[in-house]
Amino acid sequence: MSTTAPAATHSHASAGKNEVALFGLPALLLIVAIVSIAIAAVYLRRASGVKADSILLVGARGSGKTNMLARLEHDAWVETHTSLKDNSVMVALDDEGKLCTRVIDVPGHEKLRYQTHHFTPVARGIVFVLDAARLGKDIRQVAEYLYDILTDSRVAQREIPILLACHKADLATAYAPKRCREMLETEIDRIRVTRTAAVDSQTAEQEQHSAAERYLGYEGETFRFDHLPNDVQEVACSSLQETSEANDRLGSVKEWMADVAAGRT
Ligand SMILES: Nc1nc2c(ncn2[C@@H]2O[C@H](COP(=O)(O)OP(=O)(O)O)[C@@H](O)[C@H]2O)c(=O)[nH]1
Ligand SMILES: [Mg+2]
């Protein structure tokens, strides 16, 4: 009896320590979860409570999103949502100004990419901006970002239409849109193999986390955008100011936006 008493005391003390350690982690996770939900809620509320009324400009840093937004703003409608003023504008899509849509410039920096998922609930269309002159060099990084967007459960479930905006088409080295589309398909096919292998070897916890991440396309078939529930189109475009004739090289992007805003896509 006398030998068990100190042991019991000892185990009680270490249990107490463990409780503190165990309590610390869930509390931290809870705080992180609450803060994340609060941030998302603020974003959504600031987006004026209107659901899926926006078109997102997403893409790698340097692809020209901010430039494109500035060019679109040239014909901009009045911006009333001041909270998103810095990175969103209302763009008029017809001459009478009856058809317009909010366009949001989503930061493309690697560390801010998770923000894209905060914006997908308000998206009715996604313009994926890519630097068509650098696609050969940046293909992996660009395709990975696109893969992350396409596997977002909301993007798939709501069949949000996607435009591959092959930007900087003014440069002689820019790839043609069809070629950009093919390059992305080939690279996504490779990424799909890697990611699927990673899913097979991950723990139950990780698996639960990525359960929402869907398998893209058809198993056993080379990846094609046509296999997705989303409509995926590609256009060449440029945000450079045209010097001579009124040759609006964002016209193709605006036409697509008008189709999306009018529910034609
Ligand atoms: N040649 C060319 N350069 C562009 C075009 N659009 C943007 N750029 C340049 O690309 C760089 C990145 O543009 P920015 O809008 O800041 O890209 P973001 O990081 O995606 O917002 C800048 O140096 C722009 O001048 C374009 O249509 N053609
Ligand atoms: Mg920018």
Write the CATH architecture name of the largest domain. Answer: 3-Layer(aba) Sandwich
What structural class do the secondary elements suggest? alpha/beta
User: Which sheet architecture does the biggest sheet show?
Assistant: 7 strands, mixed
Bound molecules: guanosine-5'-diphosphate, magnesium ion
Pfam family, one: SRPRB
GO cellular component, one term: endoplasmic reticulum membrane
Subcellular location: Endoplasmic reticulum membrane
InterPro entries: P-loop_NTPase, Small_GTPase_ARF, SRP_receptor_beta_su
Would you write up a description of this structure?
Keywords: Endoplasmic reticulum, GTP-binding, Membrane, Nucleotide-binding, Receptor, Transmembrane, Transmembrane helix. Belongs to the SRP receptor beta subunit family. Pfam families: SRPRB. The chain is an alpha/beta fold and 265 residues long. It has two domains: 1-46; 50-261, P-loop containing nucleotide triphosphate hydrolases (Rossmann fold), CATH 3.40.50. The protein is built from eight helices and seven strands; from the N terminus they run H-E-H-E-E-E-H-E-H-H-E-H-H-E-H. It has helices at residues 4-46, 65-73, 115-119, 135-150, 153-157, 177-201, 204-209, 251-261; strands at residues 54-58, 76-77, 88-92, 100-105, 123-131, 162-167, 232-236. It has a seven-stranded mixed β-sheet, sandwiched between helices. The model is unreliable at 1-11 and 76-85 (pLDDT under 50). Bound molecules: guanosine-5'-diphosphate and magnesium ion.
